[in-house]
Amino acid sequence: MSNNLKKILKTLIPIAFGVFLVWYWYNSTSAYDRQQILYYIKKADLFWVSLSVVLGMLSHISRAIRWKYLLEPLGYKPRLSNNIFIILMAYFANLGIPRTGEILRATALATYEGVPFEKGFGTIVTERIIDVVMLLGIITITLLLQTDIILQFLQERGFDFMGLLSILGIGVLAVIFFLVFIKKSSHKIALKIKGFIKGLLDGILSILKIKKVWPFVFHTLFIWSCYIGMLWVIKFTIPETAQLGLSELLVAFVAGAFAMATTNGGVGLYPIAVSKALSIYGISSISGDAFGWIMWISQTLMIVVFGAISFLVLPLWNRNR
Question: Whole-model pTM?
Answer without folding.
Answer: 0.77
